[in-house]
Design goal:
This protein is an alpha+beta fold. Helix content is 38%, strand content 19%.
Length: 153
């Protein structure tokens, strides 16, 4: 089916819908009248009147690479920080048997540093601290960008 056939079929469907809405709409129904008017306007647009997307503005703003990139626009983007104490793999049977007071054994030793994840990516290791009755983390080791890239591969 060609694009013109598609547009023709679409136009016929819109006409049919407009006729059914017009016949069911009363003079007191402004929504019905508005929908009918919209359907008529939509059908009157031909495929020739549709403009192709213009990317000229984007092409002009690309530059030649010598322009300085302004990273300040990224500074206000929120990210999610997570501290990972450890991980454990358990079966669903065991998971369903847990109750209040159950102990789940993690894959880390006590005193081992926690992982600081930013949007799921390991960024640093740290230890838990308590400041004014609130938990915090003291970073003990920040992962270098080169190490992060190695872990992605």
């Amino acid at each position: 089916m060609s694009e013109e056939d598609d547009l023709s079929a679409w136009g016929e469907a819109m006409d049919e819908q407009a006729q059914s809405e017009t016949s069911s709409a009363t003079d007191d129904d402004p929504w019905g009248e508005a929908l009918s008017e919209q359907a008529r306007e939509t059908h009157s647009n031909n495929a020739d009147e549709i403009d192709a997307a213009s990317f000229a503005a984007l092409e002009k703003s690309r530059g030649n690479g010598s322009e300085k990139v302004d990273l300040d626009v990224l500074l206000d983007i929120p990210v999610t920080l997570a501290l990972e104490i450890g991980r454990a793999k358990v079966s669903i049977r065991n998971l369903l048997s847990y109750t209040q007071g159950s102990v789940i054994e993690m894959d880390r030793l006590a005193g081992e540093p926690l992982d600081l994840l930013v949007n799921g990516t390991l960024i640093a290791h740290g230890e838990v601290v308590v400041i004014n009755d609130k938990f915090g983390v003291r970073l003990t080791d920040v992962i270098s960008p080169q190490e992060r890239i190695k872990k992605l591969k």
